[in-house]
């Protein structure tokens, strides 16, 4: 008797999703891979890689629902803030006429949802501000603000499917993957780069000078990071665990934190970007750095509140109530990080060279 091949439906074949698809091709050749894309050019690229393109975008709820209802595995990695597409997956899973076949759904959020999750711990050490993904849903959500970034998506997902009772009723195993700053150069053929370090580099080039953190701020300004390739492996490891999970049985939590064991200092990343601008003789790298001591100045440097990302970026760099995460769930499954960190990626990984040389 021939076993039917499992189908994985991926939403968002971008920086993370495109790298994950290539990783899945190597690590999970047993899966039939499909991916939602708007662009004809990318559809052809996916097809050339042996991945079936599904034409559509995030607003095409009926298309997402249809393919989610047929897939064995759904991974949403397009954006953490598009509620309609995330719920279209839920609708697809719930609408299956035959629920005898289990489905896995991994939704990708972001751990800036945990910014301000250490309120009351402002004077505590970094270690005391750490939240583990094995502490359980209640302990994690107790520290989440109702208006935190991405909560407008993760909250409804938790209510509608990402809980033990709904999983049992719908024969589904689910988890919210919460990556922090994701760095590195994505997989071929796209070779996309990350967001945060390039944002900083572009701002420095546009302003004509680099920036550095005031010593008092540098002492507490840390954040979590993970390489895009380590993150892809984290998805593979988590997926294997969810495939074995019995819906209705409790998991360590419905969250997964793939962050590296130790947070990185923002001051070191600022300095690393400055060093690359100097190395490549960009004019911004030749000017004296502007030393920043407050959030408002940093947000102005990034282009002000109208940019959209500046307020969140300012919060995670300058606020003392930021939370840090520990990937205990993944470590228990044997996962290990291989990358050397975001600072090394900037200094030795060539991550910013194409951007600087534009």
Q: Which features characterize this protein?
A:
16% strand, two-stranded parallel ribbon, seven-stranded parallel β-sheet, globular, alpha/beta, 17 helices, Rossmann fold, 358 residues
Descriptive account of the structure:
The chain is an alpha/beta fold and 358 residues long. The protein has two domains: 6-182 and 225-256, Rossmann fold (3-Layer(aba) Sandwich), CATH 3.40.50; 185-224 and 262-322 and 336-356, no CATH class. The chain has helices at residues 15-27, 40-48, 61-70, 83-94, 137-142, 151-160, 164-170, 196-207, 215-218, 228-244, 266-279, 283-286, 295-301, 310-318, 328-332, 342-348, 353-356, and strands spanning 6-11, 31-37, 52-55, 73-76, 103-108, 130-132, 172-177, 181-183, 211-213, 222-223, 225-227, 255-256, 264-265, 290-292, 324-326. The strands form five sheets. It has a seven-stranded parallel beta sheet, sandwiched between helices. Strands 6-15 form a two-stranded parallel ribbon. Strands 8-11 form a two-stranded parallel ribbon. Helix 1 (15-27) crosses helix 10 and helix 13 runs antiparallel to helix 14 (310-318). The model has no long low-confidence stretch (mean pLDDT 96).
